[in-house]
Amino acid sequence: MSAEIKVTVWNEYLHELKDPAVAAVYPQGIHGAIAGFLGAEKDFSVRTAVLREPEHGLSEEVLAQTDVLIWWGHMAHDQVEDSIVDRVYQRVLEGMGLIVLHSGHFSKIFRKLMGTSCGLRWREAGEKERLWVVEQGHPIAQGLGHYFEIPQTEMYGERFDIPAPDTLVFISWYAGGEVFRSGCCYQRGQGKIFYFAPGHETYPIYHQKEVQQVIKNAVRWAKPVSGLPQPVDPFRPCPPLEKLD
Ligand code: ZN
């Protein structure tokens, strides 16, 4: 019997308001689409948060009640307050799971956690992407075959300037010839992090069932091991447990 997993879906939520073509794909916003399919899972309780809310919707109270945070951002990474980034960072170290999607590779929180530029090469040509499952048996690959395809995607290509993942679950191939490490697992402190590349705002990628499966799997994988994230035992000088000579 496992307790409900508390998920917060964070979205910058600007493309959908500015661009009718994006709004047509995601009438409830990208956060609404993701919260929609996650909310259908009996073991998840889901809320959303967006950039323009006070504290970007990520108050201390909200984060204290979040097991797994999902992050989508693109055009306004620099508008995310550093104090909120620090707050999210601290919660990850304390055990909150973090799933960073697509253009979130350049978010302040992902770059802070990775410690590298997180730069990559890209092309927006609506080409096919084939995601190869290179770690079969990994919880994030549950229910998938050897590979699945996204009919139209934005190409993200190597080099992707990230630290070598603890586990690489997916490698993408694109019709134009590039490859990309598109599903990367990390641990920082007590928190698990998963980066997943698909999700350009003008394509209906989060409506695709395999993509939804990956994100659902990732939430279950990234949840804290026991209960909500807990403050880390303070680092301090330490008396010996045994008598020392
Ligand atoms: Zn994109």
Structural features, described:
The chain has 245 residues and is α/β, with parallel strands linked by helices. Helices cover 24% and strands 29% of the residues. The chain has a domain at 5-116 and 183-222: Class I glutamine amidotransferase (GATase) domain (Rossmann fold, 3-Layer(aba) Sandwich). A nine-stranded mixed beta sheet has the order 2-1-3-4-9-8-7-5-6. Strand 8 (179-188) and strand 9 (191-196) form a beta hairpin. Helix 5 (82-93) crosses helix 6 (108-114). The longest helix has 14 residues, at 209-222. Zinc ion binds next to loops.
What is the overall shape? Answer: globular
Largest sheet, in brief, is: 9 strands, mixed
Task: Spell out the helices and strands N to C.
Answer: EHHHEHEHEHEEEEEH
- CATH homologous superfamily annotation of the domain at 5-116 and 183-222: Class I glutamine amidotransferase (GATase) domain
Which class of secondary structure composition applies to the elements?
alpha/beta
Task: Kindly list the characteristics that best describe this protein.
single chain; 245 residues; Rossmann fold; nine-stranded mixed β-sheet; 9 strands; 24% helix; 29% strand; globular; binds zinc ion
Write the layout of secondary structure elements.
Elements: E1 5-11, H1 15-18, H2 20-25, H3 29-39, E2 44-50, H4 60-64, E3 68-72, H5 82-93, E4 97-101, H6 108-114, E5 121-133, E6 147-157, E7 167-174, E8 179-188, E9 191-196, H7 209-222
Parallel strand pairs: 1-2, 1-3, 3-4, 4-9
Antiparallel strand pairs: 5-6, 5-7, 7-8, 8-9
Helix pairs in contact: 5-6
